[in-house]
């Protein structure tokens, strides 16, 4: 889907056009990390289909080898970030959702991951009579995936959790609000600030990596700011129809993005919440993490942890994070998988 590819590129989830010399200067070698591997002695996988509104999304159920109808296990639903992601949330050579699935299976936890609707159906991903927004892009399918997990004979129906990454993290509270089967949610690098504000910040950050911003880059940011300010008015009489909308996304999408308040929705949940954040993440920053902490600080069931060396994909590295970092094959840091498993098994996170 063209608009979603553009969306993903602008948010820095694709490599972009940074000069190789600059990439080499800014991206330092990641710490040697052991790749997560599929161990057929410890886990098994089978094909599944997540279905919502007549859309059928192929996916994978990963189970610990010990799981059975007599020995039911917890299950984690994995919800992607923005863009037409596959079930592994593949970015370059990296597959963070596959890493999580295999790592958690080693720790006695099943997972469900699936190809995103925008990947499978492209521009035809919106049901008749509806418009593109957070629900038709991601929420409806995640709710269906939770229901599917409840029907799996090897899954403990009272121990179904959901992990949302990036946009999925932002939407995790909304998904939980619409599902009565979840035991808890994990917000992994979930944006709190308005989408338009984050887009401007990311473009500014990427434009400044080579040093002082050029006049052309500054003009680009100002033009983007103009479009974002107009998008904030979508659905009102002040909205200017003559201006293009940022990222190629329709007004319906911006209307929901402007209205939705993830921390307020999360504050209304009774279930346990785990918020995880990479401190080197330039897409969803420590400011967002602080906002989650501030709004949920009074909730005894909310746990927060940030990781000094991790970027948006939970990869280890040093120095400023750049899109080129995502082109290096680096698995999800094992201690992230350990913390996710501890949360699901109701253990204390160190």
What does the model show?
The chain has 350 residues and is an alpha/beta fold. The chain has a single domain, classed as Alpha/Beta hydrolase fold, catalytic domain (Rossmann fold). 37% of the residues lie in helices and 18% in strands. It contains 12 helices and 8 strands. The chain has helices spanning 2-10, 20-26, 96-105, 117-121, 134-151, 167-178, 195-207, 215-231, 251-259, 262-267, 286-296, 334-344; strands spanning 43-52, 55-64, 73-79, 110-114, 155-165, 182-188, 273-278, 302-307. The protein has an 8-stranded mixed beta sheet, sandwiched between helices. α5 (134-151) packs across α6. It starts with a helix and ends in a 6-residue tail after the last helix.
Do you know the CATH architecture? 3-Layer(aba) Sandwich
Tally of separate domains: 1
How many strands appear in the DSSP assignment?
Answer: 8
Q: Can you tell me the overall shape?
A: globular
Residue windows where pLDDT falls under 50 for at least 5 positions: 1-30
- The CATH topology turns out to be Rossmann fold
Q: Biggest sheet: strands, sense, closure?
A: 8 strands, mixed
- The order of strands across the largest sheet is 1-2-4-3-5-6-7-8
Beta strand %:
15-25%
Task: Indicate the percent of residues in helices.
Answer: 25-40%
Number of helices: 12
- Looking at how many chains there are and whether they match, the oligomeric state comes to single chain
The secondary structure category is: alpha/beta
User: Using only CA atoms, what is the Rg?
Assistant: 20 Å
Q: Let me know the CATH homologous superfamily.
A: Alpha/Beta hydrolase fold, catalytic domain
From the N-terminal CA to the C-terminal CA, the straight-line distance is 41 Å
The average pLDDT score comes to: 91
Note the run of SSEs as H and E. Answer: HHEEEHEHHEHEHHHHEHEH
* CATH top level class name: Alpha Beta
């Amino acid at each position: 889907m063209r608009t979603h590819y553009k969306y993903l590129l602008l948010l820095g989830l694709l490599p972009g056009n940074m000069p190789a010399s600059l990439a080499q200067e800014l991206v330092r070698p990641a710490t040697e990390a052991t790749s997560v591997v599929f161990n057929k002695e410890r886990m098994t996988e089978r094909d599944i289909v997540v279905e919502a509104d007549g859309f059928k999304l192929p996916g994978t159920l990963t189970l610990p080898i010990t799981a059975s109808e007599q020995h039911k296990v917890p299950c984690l639903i994995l919800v992607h970030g923005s863009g037409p992601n596959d079930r592994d949330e593949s970015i370059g050579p990296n597959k963070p959702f596959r890493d999580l699935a295999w790592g958690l299976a080693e720790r006695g936890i099943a997972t469900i991951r699936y190809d995103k609707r925008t990947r499978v159906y492209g521009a035809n991903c919106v049901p008749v009579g509806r418009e593109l927004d957070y629900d038709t892009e991601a929420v409806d399918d995640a709710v269906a995936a939770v229901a599917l997990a409840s029907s799996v004979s090897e899954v403990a129906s009272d121990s179904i959790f959901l992990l949302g990454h990036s946009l999925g993290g932002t939407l995790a509270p909304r998904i939980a609000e619409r599902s009565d089967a979840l035991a808890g949610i994990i917000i992994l690098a979930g944006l709190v600030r308005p989408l338009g504000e984050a887009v401007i910040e990311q473009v500014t950050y990427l434009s400044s990596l080579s040093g002082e911003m050029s006049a052309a880059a500054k003009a680009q940011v100002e033009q983007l700011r103009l479009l974002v300010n107009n998008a904030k008015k979508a659905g009102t009489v002040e909205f200017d129809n003559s201006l293009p909308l940022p990222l190629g996304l329709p007004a319906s999408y911006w209307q929901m993005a402007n209205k939705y308040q993830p921390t307020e929705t999360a504050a209304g949940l009774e279930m346990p919440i785990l918020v995880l954040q990479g401190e080197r993440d330039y897409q969803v920053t420590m400011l967002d993490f602080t906002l989650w902490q501030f709004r949920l600080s009074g909730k005894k069931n909310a746990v927060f942890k940030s990781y000094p060396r991790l970027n948006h994909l939970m990869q280890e590295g040093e120095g400023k994070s750049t899109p080129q970092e995502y082109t290096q094959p680096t698995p999800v840091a094992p201690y992230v998988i350990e913390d996710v498993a501890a949360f699901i098994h109701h253990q204390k996170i160190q």
